[in-house]
Amino acid sequence: MNTVYYLIMVPMVYLAVAVCLIGVIARLIALGRAPRHPHSLAIFPQRGPRFLGALGDTFGMPTVRRHQPLLWFFLLLYHLAFLVLIASHFDLFPGIRILPADSPHMIGAGAVGVVLTLALFYFLIRRFRSPIREITVPSDYLLLLLLLFLVLTGSTISWANSWNSEAGGFVITKQDFGLYLDGLARFRFEDPREVLYGSHYIVVVLHVLLANLFLILLPFSKIMHTFIALPMNRLRRGA
Amino acid sequence: MDATQKQELRRLFASRLTGAVRMYLEACTHCGTCIPACHAYASEPELRHSSVGRAENIRRLFWRHFRPQGRLAGWLNEAVELSEDWMEKVYETAYTCTGCRRCVTYCPFGIDTQQIQSIAKLLLIGAGREPQVLSMLADMSIAKGENVEATKASFTQAVQGLEEEVIARWRSEAGREAIPIDEKDADLLYVALAGKHSIIPAAAIMNAAGENWSLSYFEAVNFGAFVGNPEKTREISQRIIDEAVRLGVREVAICECGTAYRVMKFMMGELPFRVVSFVEVIARYLREGRIQIDPRKTEQRLTYHDPCQIARNGGVMEEAREILAHLTRDFVELQPNRVENWCCGGGGGLVAMGEKEFRMRSARVKAEQVRATGAEVLATACENCHTQLSDLNEHYALGMRVAFLSDLVSQALVASQ
Ligand code: HEM
Ligand code: SF4
Ligand code: SF4
What we know:
The complex is a heterodimer of chains A (239) and B (417). Chain A is an all-alpha fold and 239 residues long. Chain A has one domain (2-236): Fumarate Reductase Cytochrome B subunit. Helix content of chain A is 65%, strand content 0%. Chain B is of the alpha/beta class. Chain B has helices at 3-15, 19-26, 39-43, 51-66, 68-72, 84-95, 113-126, 132-146, 148-160, 163-169, 200-208, 223-227, 230-247, 258-266, 278-287, 318-327, 350-353, 356-362, 364-371, 383-395, 405-411; strands spanning 188-191, 213-215, 251-254, 274-277, 292-293, 302-305, 377-380, 401-404, 413-414. In chain B, strand 3, helix 14 (258-266) and strand 4 form a beta-alpha-beta unit. In chain B, helix 10 (163-169) crosses helix 11 (200-208) and helix 11 packs across helix 21. The chains are: A mainly alpha (239), B alpha/beta (417). Chains A and B meet through helix 2, helix 4, helix 7, helix 8 and helix 11 of A and helix 2 and helix 4 of B. The complex binds protoporphyrin IX containing FE and iron/sulfur cluster (2 copies). Residues 28-34, 51-52, 106-107, 109, 111 of chain B line the site of one iron/sulfur cluster (SF4).
């Protein structure tokens, strides 16, 4: 079992990051190289500066706000929380500091996970209702489930983090994760068990496994919208 | 479906895979925001009448035939293989969608279902399943372009027969033809439809404005675009481009035909002349004081339907309001209007194909929207819309008069004080 844990916690992480980066870049190159559309795809009237307008459309999602306010609320909440989540994971690396080095918490102190969980639940539940149900394909459900378990395991770790050794053994601190990630960043190939010695190590392994899967699937999934939402919105603005 | 045919259809599909279309096919999150955008869905809430519902028919083929994940784990995206049966779905995508692009204004990414629909249309041509009537009409237009000389005399004669009616609306100066044809160095080439309703009012208006114009030999309508055949679309437009270049005009004005305007203005690349819709021309004459109209001549309450291809997809919206402000004192807007206006339900070749039953069913929202204004006259600026709105008027007993903007203007022309 320890070997499996090790494979997930170290080599697979490298594999996932590589697949994700190479996959996304290759996809973007392929899309960029595809022939230009032969005519304008603009919607009129065209007001204001094009690029800024497209940025606003991409990050403010005004069309969803107008037509599906509740979805818009959760979308914004979710996507903002996701951004914070990425930042907070970088913050774990000892070399990158956003919060003070001795802070026991991740950015948001657990709130980010709660927000993401709520939003993902909402996304999932609305998929069971008509007419969204009929346009949903298996990958939509699976992706949401993957993310849901990813944030749930994350939140469990974050919650366990707030325990201390006197209270029952949940002792993997933010600084310990920092050591693990630092080892990864420096390609030391050490067994993470040496720095992550809490009794809920299995949850950490699960979390990393799900994150690896997410990264590997990303370039092949609709999450590619992250990178092409802006170019598509520029087309509508007449670029 | 045998392997060669499949290969051929795959090739046609691939010919449409521009960067934009690939993104539209790959990035839909199935969020459903676009569903209520379509008039067909709003009239009859069935998913196959929604934007994403139609696009999925093509998207599922795309996964299977163009992406590795569709081949390895097709069930994830419900990928499907090209087959005779599936072509029924392709037909539905192609010919229940009017290409109005209203859904583009709902989608958070701006996914353009019309471009996905155009793949469907091309696949049907490849399988020989496109509506034959549209292909035939397109071929007739092209044949006419190849034999201009043979038809010139009869065309000129037919047009001369209309001059009296033009003069009845506006008596032009002595020595000027009421409908000039083949005028070298004219400033403006007017491209009409095969029907006097699209020639007489426009001629009267241009004569009243003292325009140095010429009538094109060719009709504006582009059946190549309706059937979705890019080569035919180009050939049909090219006839007009050649004529405009030969006459050396500075401007080509497309009559009240939405698709013809969009194709010429946006799809033909750089042209050595300006392309305008006739609505813009009328608005310009009014702005420059070249024509005057008497608002008392249109006493009934008036509303205006923005044709999708001219307004949302062509940018001509405020020009129509300028004209309407001169035309009547009792104007009421449709709700919603301009970019958000409901499609009439007749575009994309549906009117030319007949399809009356579907057109009436799928445009119930349009009829209700029009009825709610309490207007007596429903003006518009597109041939397709005019036909469809007239059919709706009858079918839903709206009791209105459907009129072209140019017709209303030409009836209200008065001499400048
Ligand atoms: C870090 C980058 C991003 C990630 C990881 C991400 C992830 C996600 C996920 C997991 C969903 C839920 C899908 C579902 O409901 O099944 C989603 C939905 C969505 N995202 Fe993103 N996204 C990102 C960036 C963006 C950006 C830049 C936009 C800009 C327009 C955007 C727009 C949307 C929209 C419109 C939906 C549809 C909601 C739905 O599916 O019900 N996303 N995104
Ligand atoms: S382009 Fe118009 S008709 Fe076609 S799906 Fe979109 S809203 Fe419906
Ligand atoms: S609004 Fe756009 S992303 Fe959402 S289902 Fe419709 S086409 Fe797909």
